[in-house]
Amino acid sequence: MQKERVVIIGSGPAGLTAALYTARAQLAPVVIAGAQLGGQVAITHEIENYPGFPEGLSGPELVERMKDHAENFGAKFEYDLVESVDFSRGSPFIVKTLGGHYSADAVIVTIGADPRKLGVPGEEDYIGAGVSYCGTCDGFFFRGKDIVVVGGGDSALEEGIFLTRFANSVNIIHRRDELRAGVQLQERAFKNEKIRFTWNAVVEEIVGGAGGVTAVRLRDVISGEETVAPTEGVFIFIGHDPNNAVFGEQIALNENGYIITDQRYRTNVDGVFAAGEIQDEIWRQVATSVGQGTSAAMAAIQWLEAHEDSLQPLTAATA
C-alpha cells in the first residue's frame, strides 16, 4: 500500500487545479486521472470563455497545460480507475484502484458528473461537431444557425433562452406536451420570438456528414410518425449523473446525488473535500471548477497543517 499526503480522485479542471495548489504546498499529490484525463473538458472542441486566453484554445490543449503546470511542482498522475474507497475509519483513508492501493491523509474528490445522453445513432459521432451539452460553452459557435434543444426542464429552457443570443432559431424538442420547467422560465421562453416547440417528440437519430450535424430524425410519441427536421446543432439538456457510485453511503449526498460540501468544500467526512461538478449542479463551467478546486486544495492544506502532529510518516509499505 502506497502512503500519500493527498490523493485527488478525478482529473477535470477542479482536480488539476487542486493538484497544482497542493503540489506547490510540497504535498506531492497523487491524481487518479480516471478514464479520461481532463474529464468533459478533454472532449470540448474549443474554449473561448476561460480568462486569459482571448484567442481561445481547445479543451485538450487546456487540459495538457494544466497537467504540465501541476507536474512542474511535483504532482503525480496515475492513469487508473478508482474501484472503492474506505472513509469509514477516518484518516488515513484507503483508496483502491485497479492498479493498486493508496493510504491518504486527505482526499479531494473531483470526479465530476456526466451529462445524460440520448443514446441514439449519431450522437457520439458528432460530439464537438454539432452535438453539445453546454450552451454557455458552445453557443458562440452557432451564430446565425438554426439549432434544436432537447429537454423540457429548467436547464433546457435556461440554455435555450441563452442560445437565442447567437442562433437564428431554437427549436425545443420535448417528449411531453407540457414543460417541467418553472413557470417564469416557461413564460420567458414562450415570449421569445426565436424559440419554437416541438411537442410529444423524441430524437431517434442525429444525422450529419463531414461538415457536422445536418438534421435530427424525430418520432411522434403519440402517432409514431417519423419526420426529419433540418438543424445545424443539437443541444442536449436532459440532466446530469454525478459520478458517486464508488463512494456508496460513505459520504453525504443531496437528493440529486451530488456531494454536500460547506463553504470550505469540506464534506461530512473530516479530511475529505470535494470540488467541481461532483458537488456543483448549477454552474458546470471550467472557471467555476478551477475556483472550487483552488478552495478545496487550500482547505485540505490547512486541514493537514492542523493535523500535522498526528500524521503517519510518508513511507511506502506493501499491503
Descriptors:
single chain, 319 residues, alpha/beta, FAD/NAD(P)-binding domain, 2 domains, 7-stranded mixed sheet, 5-stranded parallel sheet
What is the element layout, followed by pairings?
Elements: E1 2-9, H1 13-24, E2 30-32, H2 59-72, E3 76-78, E4 82-86, E5 93-97, E6 101-109, E7 113-115, E8 131-132, H3 135-138, E9 146-150, H4 154-163, E10 169-173, H5 183-191, E11 195-198, E12 201-209, E13 212-220, E14 226-230, E15 233-236, E16 240-242, E17 272-274, H6 286-306
Parallel strand pairs: 1-2, 1-6, 2-3, 6-17, 8-15, 9-10, 9-15, 10-11
Antiparallel strand pairs: 4-5, 5-6, 7-16, 12-13, 13-14
Characterise this structure.
The strands form 4 sheets. Strands 1, 2, 3, 4, 5, 6 and 17 form a 7-stranded mixed beta sheet that branches. The protein has a 5-stranded parallel beta sheet with strand order 8-15-9-10-11. A 3-stranded antiparallel beta sheet has the order 12-13-14, with no helix packed on it. 22% of the residues lie in helices and 27% in strands. It has 319 residues and is of the alpha/beta class. The longest helix has 21 residues. α4 packs parallel to α5. The radius of gyration is 22 Å and the shape is elongated. β5 and β6 form a beta hairpin. It folds into 2 domains: 184 residues, FAD/NAD(P)-binding domain; 120 residues, FAD/NAD(P)-binding domain (3-Layer(bba) Sandwich).
